[in-house]
């Protein structure tokens, strides 16, 4: 089959190609959790004293957070591979940055920093790459404006934006209009600077790393389950104590070798120390429901987060309905789960996934376009995706535009390991944002992935 081009390839970028591979085997060291790494740096910056971090993700997104904090007077130092320390400046101790804060591809950096900056009476200009500049910022600006910040954005609440915090923030009670851990975290971080109690109410539980870490650092945080949802209340203007943070391996990154092992016949892959926070681990539940052979052992608690060692063996997958209630716990894993669904027997439906439209790319559209180009029958509506599994190796044979989206790049490379014909992506470099060395790590398991022109 000849190579179809789904969307015209990026002008620049490093193409990569994956081909049907023999059984994958071995143990992969999955990089540190991206969400927890951002929070360790940011909360460490607000603590009084030195926070020591082990297993920090050294991806571009986390480097963007580190650089922004340095630009505001925080000492952030790498002591060794994955080993970092942050000398905190105390709550409200940041300095005005002299230059624009460029947050690259990282929505988490941009939105959580808004919360961190809210209680500082200075102006910061924030921007990002072509993907981040398209993403909606009004969802954080709305509650923070109620608390007293002033923000000017480009049309549609897009960055670049000028963000002016306030020394006299007001505490608020805020019900999240969309399930978003970034918005919840921004309000809680702002609440740390406001007098009295700030409350966030979420009717769907989103990742709770901010709450866990704040409470570990001595903040006054109260969480109650109510008929309206989960109420998280923080009492502001208390100092944070530095802690030692051990960052678990990222379940979102583990999902790539996990799906690869599930769909490449004869594979067995070991992934140790994977974060299994229930608000994050939905992808493993979904894969298991589809018939994947996943064994979890050595389940333990590390630094306030549940972790486990996972063994994944190839298995015949069947289609499943993945319920909307699970969406928040696997929101970043739909692209790679879509690849598993395309290899399965029967139909898979992802319900309640409208938020995929505002990720690093419009992932709903990108999954549809990319899988179709690879010969898979897919349909979408505003809030769901339906994939007709091929019940064996899907055709493949297309080039996918990764649109500055790391998870699209890695998902389609995983897909090509199980398709009849090679799958190419126009640019593998976005994978560096969350999974440095992805292609090398996959090749070490036996994946046939090559980089450069042509396939
Ligand atoms: C994140 C929250 C999620 C997720 C993102 C990381 C976080 O975004 O998609 O990759 O670290 O809080 P939303 O808050 O937009 O759902």
What this model shows, in words?
There is one protein chain. The protein is an alpha/beta fold. It folds into two domains: 3-31 and 248-451, Enolpyruvate transferase domain (UDP-n-acetylglucosamine1-carboxyvinyl-transferase, Chain, Alpha-beta prism); 34-245, UDP-n-acetylglucosamine1-carboxyvinyl-transferase, Chain. The chain contains twelve helices and 25 strands. It has helices at 34-46, 60-71, 107-117, 138-147, 181-191, 209-216, 251-263, 282-289, 334-343, 363-373, 406-416, 438-444, and strands at 4-5, 16-19, 25-28, 50-54, 75-80, 83-87, 101-102, 123-127, 150-154, 158-164, 173-175, 197-202, 220-226, 229-235, 244-246, 268-275, 293-302, 305-313, 321-322, 347-351, 377-380, 384-388, 398-400, 423-425, 448-451. Strand 11 (173-175), helix 5 and strand 12 (197-202) form a beta-alpha-beta unit. The longest helix is centred in the first third of the chain and has 13 residues, at 34-46. The radius of gyration is 21 Å and the shape is globular. It starts with a strand and ends with a strand. Bound molecules: shikimate-3-phosphate.
Q: Please state the second-level CATH architecture of the largest domain.
A: Alpha-beta prism
Number of strands: 25
Ligand identities: shikimate-3-phosphate
Tell me the name of the CATH class of the largest domain: Alpha Beta
What name goes with the CATH superfamily of the largest domain?
Enolpyruvate transferase domain
The share of residues in extended strands comes to 25-35%
- Main-sheet strand order equals 1-23-24-2-25
Mean pLDDT: 96
Helical run tally: 12
What is the helix fraction of residues, given as a range?
A: 25-40%
C-alpha Rg (nearest Å): 21 Å
* Domain module tally: 2
| Gap from first CA to last CA | 13 Å
The main pleated sheet reads as: 5 strands, mixed
Sum up the overall morphology in one term. globular
Class derived from helix and strand content:
alpha/beta
CATH topology of the largest domain: UDP-n-acetylglucosamine1-carboxyvinyl-transferase, Chain
- Pick out the low-confidence regions: 1-11
């Amino acid at each position: 089959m000849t190579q179809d081009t789904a969307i015209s390839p990026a002008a620049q970028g490093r193409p990569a190609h994956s081909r049907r591979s023999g059984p994958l085997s071995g143990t992969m060291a999955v990089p540190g959790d991206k969400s927890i790494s951002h929070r360790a740096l940011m909360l460490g910056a607000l603590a009084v004293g030195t926070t020591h971090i082990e297993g920090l993700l050294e991806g571009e997104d986390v480097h963007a957070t580190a650089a922004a904090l340095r630009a505001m007077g925080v000492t952030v130092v790498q002591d060794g591979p994955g080993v970092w320390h942050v000398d905190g400046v105390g709550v409200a101790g940041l300095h005005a940055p002299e230059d624009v804060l460029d947050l690259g591809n990282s929505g988490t950096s941009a939105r959580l920093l808004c919360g961190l900056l809210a209680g500082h009476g200075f102006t910061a200009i924030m921007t990002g790459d072509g993907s981040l500049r398209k993403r909606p910022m009004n969802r954080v600006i709305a509650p923070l404006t109620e608390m007293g910040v002033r923000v000017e954005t480009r049309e549609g609440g897009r960055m670049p934006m000028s963000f002016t915090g306030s020394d006299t923030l007001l505490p608020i009670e805020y019900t999240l209009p969309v399930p978003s851990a970034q918005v919840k975290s921004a309000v809680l971080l702002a609440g740390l600077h406001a007098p009295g109690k700030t409350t966030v109410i979420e009717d769907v539980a989103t990742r709770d790393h901010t709450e866990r870490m704040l409470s570990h650092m001595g903040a006054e945080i109260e969480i109650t389950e109510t008929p309206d949802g989960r109420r998280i209340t923080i009492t502001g203007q208390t100092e944070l104590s530095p802690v030692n943070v051990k960052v678990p391996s990222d379940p979102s990154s583990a999902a790539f070798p996990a799906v690869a092992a599930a769909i490449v016949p004869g594979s067995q892959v070991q992934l140790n120390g994977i974060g299994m926070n229930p608000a994050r681990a939905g992808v493993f539940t979904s894969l298991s429901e589809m018939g994947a052979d996943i064994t979890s052992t050595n389940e333990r608690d590390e630094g306030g987060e549940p972790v486990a060692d996972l063994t994944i063996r190839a298995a015949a997958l069947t289609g499943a309905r993945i319920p909307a209630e699970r969406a928040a716990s696997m929101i970043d894993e739909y692209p790679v789960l879509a690849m598993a669904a395309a290899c399965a027997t029967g139909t898979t439906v992802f319900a309640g996934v409208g938020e995929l439209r505002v990720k690093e790319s419009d992932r709903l559209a990108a999954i549809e376009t990319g899988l179709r180009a690879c010969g898979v029958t897919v349909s979408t509506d505003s809030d769901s995706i339906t994939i007709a599994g091929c019940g064996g190796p899907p055709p493949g044979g297309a080039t996918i535009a990764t649109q500055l989206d790391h998870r699209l790049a890695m998902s389609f490379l995983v897909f090509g390991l199980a398709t009849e014909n090679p799958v190419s992506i126009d640019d593998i470099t976005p994978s560096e944002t969350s999974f440095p060395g992805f292609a090398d790590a996959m090749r070490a398991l036996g994946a046939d992935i090559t980089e450069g022109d042509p396939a």
